Amino acid sequence: MNVFRPETVKEVSNFIKDHRAMIFCDNGNKKNEVPLYAEILKKGDLLTAHDFNAEFTIQDIPERTLTILEPYRQEEFSIPHTKMLSMIRK
Known about the structure:
Blueprint: H1 6-16, E1 22-25, H2 30-38, E2 46-50, H3 63-68, E3 69-71, H4 74-77, E4 84-89
Parallel strand pairs: 1-2
Antiparallel strand pairs: 2-4, 3-4
């Protein structure tokens, strides 16, 4: 499944529209994946991403995305050898 295809994004959006959601980004291009999927989240939904500060940093996340997400229990998602980004939709 290509996570960047519009059909895929629409399918995920339809799947989560009536439910609380947590989207886990672990594609090789999180700089693009995180902002794309942040847009389809609803208030209170979570977005997490693997390899934070290894494959991408907070500086790689567009300003628009940072205005709609905020950190969420980040310390609980960052365990040794696994750095995770954890954000919640405002």
